[in-house]
Amino acid sequence: MAKPIKITPVLRGNDATNFLNSIKENSTKMVSKETLVNIREQATKLKSIFRTR
């Protein structure tokens, strides 16, 4: 049987302000090129594993 859909939480007051501030802070942070290369290498490894099965 299907599970009932959970109610989506709504942020109000300080919670909403804190959430928006954290979104703004994270949007300006840059990821290093080494990290991106590592992520892409790991993704290609995972893709090759799933293709063989």
TrEMBL record:
Source organism, top-level taxon: Bacteria
Name of the protein described by the UniProt record: Uncharacterized protein
Organism: Pedobacter rhizosphaerae
Highest classification ranks of the organism: Bacteria, Pseudomonadati, Bacteroidota, Sphingobacteriia, Sphingobacteriales
